[in-house]
Write a structure and sequence with these properties.
Heat Shock Protein 90; rod-shaped
């Protein structure tokens, strides 16, 4: 039994209950007035011109019968034409059984509401059918209405048509909004696909450039090693220690970049960008660090966004957060370049030179520049990344 009841009321929304409740309450109040009004008062109203016909019935049965016409509005979403047909059939029966009583105060709002609901929920042809039924419903309401008679039909018809036109406009606007949302979702998907293709293309191209750069750096290290043949043991040892340190830093940085650009960890998560710098600082810094953004923030080419993020990541990793001297990161969007500033105390236990070298490799790939100065234990870095498109 409860399953059947839940099925009947499934899908009903609060606005449906409100709409049906208001219409039913209007009908009940109007029918109760028909029951309690006296014939003497009706005669006085007719004499005063506020009624056009004597009452045919004062039966309490007209209250629940009229409610049968309004309660089905609850289910208008399932089939508004059927709901309008039920209201029309009940109103005709009400006319036949109870004759001349006042119905316009609740019957006309019911017809207007059904005309509007049909206009908003049905396609063009069926909405006109719904309007036709609502028009006949208005006639059934007024044809034996003791207060107004059939005369007000000439005013009710334009109102119904206006309400219907408003409903059609609302339906059209809703359809356009739904189409716009669908188009927006489709464009977002296409944009993501384009970025993915762009990143893939950049990885292939930049991997070749980085491999060439790696070969160049290894050649430089080889030349430096050969120059140490005629040095004394202490100088040669210092030279080779420097070569080892530089080669390890170079290889680590190039391995990271090449692996990243060829797919590495990028396949597991979206490529980080300037928009992710807040999260980067939150993960690595506990003090009152500051990120400032100036200029005209906008979406940049994926390779520029990724390089900017990695440059800040490399530099911040060798800075230490201190409450009295917080790390400051500034990003400025210029017309043809992205400017990055990083300032903060240097962590003496970190490999500062290696981090700067990795950041410089990032800027070189994009044809940019990185200037790093250290004064009194504090580093000031300024990177300029050209915006290529």
């Amino acid at each position: 039994m409860s399953d059947g009841s839940s099925g009947i009321f499934k899908g009903l929304r609060p606005v449906d209950w409100l709409l049906a409740g208001v219409l039913t309450a209007l009908g009940v109040l109007l029918m109760v007035e028909n029951v309690v009004i006296s014939d003497a008062q009706v005669a006085a109203n007719i004499s005063a011109g506020s009624m056009v016909h004597e009452m045919s019935s004062h039966s309490w049965a007209m209250v629940p019968v009229f409610a049968v016409a309004t309660v089905p509005v609850l289910w208008w979403r399932r089939n508004v034409i059927v709901v309008t047909g039920i209201a029309l059939a009940v109103m005709v029966a009400h006319d036949l059984v109870f004759g001349w009583v006042t119905r316009c105060g609740a019957g006309l709002p019911l017809a207007f509401v059904l005309a509007y609901l049909g206009a908003t929920s049905l396609e063009r042809r069926r909405s006109w059918i719904s309007l036709g039924l609502a028009t006949v419903l208005m006639a059934a309401v007024l044809v034996r209405d003791a207060t107004t008679g059939i005369g007000p039909i000439v005013l009710a018809l334009p109102i119904a048509v206006t309400v219907f036109a408003i409903g059609r406009a609302v339906r059209q606007r809703t359809a356009m909004s739904a189409e716009l949302r669908a188009r927006t979702a489709e464009l977002r998907q296409l944009r993501d696909q384009r970025v993915s293709l762009e990143l893939s293309s950049d990885r292939v191209r930049l991997s070749g450039e980085l491999d060439s750069l790696l070969q160049e750096r290894l050649g430089q290290l080889t030349a430096a090693a050969e120059s140490g043949k005629d040095l004394d043991p202490d100088s040669a040892r210092a030279l080779f220690e420097s070569i080892e340190s530089q080669s390890r830093a170079t290889l680590d940085g190039m391995r990271e970049l090449v692996g990243l650009l060829r797919g590495g960890d990028v396949a597991l998560a979206p490529a980080p960008s300037v928009a992710h710098l807040d999260a980067l600082l939150a993960r690595h810094i506990r003090a009152d660090s500051r990120l400032t953004v100036a200029g005209d923030p906008r979406s940049l080419p994926a390779r520029v966004e990724l390089s900017a993020y990695r440059i800040v990541e490399h530099l911040v990793s060798v800075l230490v957060d201190q409450p009295e001297s917080p790390i400051e990161v500034g990003v400025r969007f210029e017309d043809d370049a992205l400017e990055i500033r990083v300032h903060g105390p240097v962590d003496r236990s970190a490999d500062f030179k290696a981090a700067v070298a990795r950041a410089q490799e990032r800027t070189k790939v994009l044809g940019g520049s990185l200037d790093v100065k250290v004064s009194r234990g504090h580093a000031n870095a300024l990177a300029q990344l050209p915006v290529l498109g």
